[in-house]
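Quick question: what would this complex look like in 3D?
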Amino acid sequence: MALFLFLFLATTLGISQGSDQDTVTHKIHLLRPQSGAAGNHVPGLSCLSWRLGVETNNVVGWITVPEECEEYVGHYMLGHQYRKDSRVVANQALLYAQSLSLARDCKDVWVFDIDETALSNLPYYAQHGFGVEQYNPTLFNKWVMEGKAPALPETLNLYKKLLSLGTKVVFLTGRPEYQRSVTANNLRKAGYQTWEKLILKGSSYSGKSAVVYKSSERKKLAMSGYKIIGNMGDQWSDLLGTDVGNRTFKMPDPMYYIS
Amino acid sequence: MALFLFLFLATTLGISQGSDQDTVTHKIHLLRPQSGAAGNHVPGLSCLSWRLGVETNNVVGWITVPEECEEYVGHYMLGHQYRKDSRVVANQALLYAQSLSLARDCKDVWVFDIDETALSNLPYYAQHGFGVEQYNPTLFNKWVMEGKAPALPETLNLYKKLLSLGTKVVFLTGRPEYQRSVTANNLRKAGYQTWEKLILKGSSYSGKSAVVYKSSERKKLAMSGYKIIGNMGDQWSDLLGTDVGNRTFKMPDPMYYIS
């Protein structure tokens, strides 16, 4: 079972088969992917409708995934639909990027969020009810400090193609400054070899919302002469506010909400 | 069969059983609702992922529904999922409206788009491939001029509750001025009995995008002292731009795209 889940997640998330990854496999929630589960009827609340509401920013300010949707969200995240949904977004982003004539002054940047955009914390959330459990900063930060988050393969693929088009990449994350080193190492290990800037949330933004923090940092980028041609995140707070970029792309994430 | 489809659509869309509605039934596309079809696997393109991409504004500027998704979109629109998705949006909107303390100066307004938001053109689109066929203004305007579009029941329900909360309603539609009378009559017939303003697209906006036209008209509302507390539409062009309102709500529509 553990081997099956490891192989599945290895395939799904492109986890490299280094021996240090084995520790991940033993922690995986025993929810097995069931093809076609995403979209099934759930009595009462339609979890598919709830998920659509989340993705479209109609359902906002929620704290945890509705209990009756744990299995639905788990199957969605571990199954094919999450990956297909991510692929459509990444493909649209690539088509858009390819349609642009870059300024060739090396100031065109693409902003990526990190968690659930560049890197996946699915190995963590699979152990914590896929968002049904309330966010536990102690446990989550412990997971982050392990530096073992795999890449979201669709984003990594897009990242590589953007680089080949001459676009520079900026990572803009809500992770705190003290996680800079582990985050940089994790990004490299996951395949993100280079970037123009890696922006983490400094203590001056303590208590500020993600929208305020990220808008402010994007404004600094613009003031420095960068042109944000694209901006991709799994939270609407990555994509709303000011200086959002020429076009924004919403990656799926039905597990948590950040305002 | 025709009777079955009539009864189904009558139930689904709340078509009143007046005899003048019988003409609608004979025109319905022979695609019968199949429970659970929405979300099924489609080889190659995932139509569910495509639909999510549309709803999240990741897939933009498309002209027609991909051919391989005609059946998927048809089943979605005629089946339960479209209605459930709409219900989640309307419920969130109502919860939000109920949470507000209205200014009680009668200047709080809620902006509704009309087509696929207040009224449903499903009887028309069911005959035209659910968005697979390219938009035909002659045929579509002929349908509009019949004034027989049923209400989208979730929106009508929200509308009634907003009125009872003391909110005034503004309809802001891309329909042209010459359709004012038929549109007003259609709205009343469908159950929308009253409104503060019914704004149609005047000739001065000819050639202007929906975002420009609707932003400009919303600005006029704001300049007149109205406060847009909510704004609901099926197109992102209803909800983006300026003066969008305190909160926006995206109704589902995988059948067409308006920029």
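Answer marked as accepted. Confidence is low (pLDDT under 50) at residues 1-12, 14-43 of chain A.
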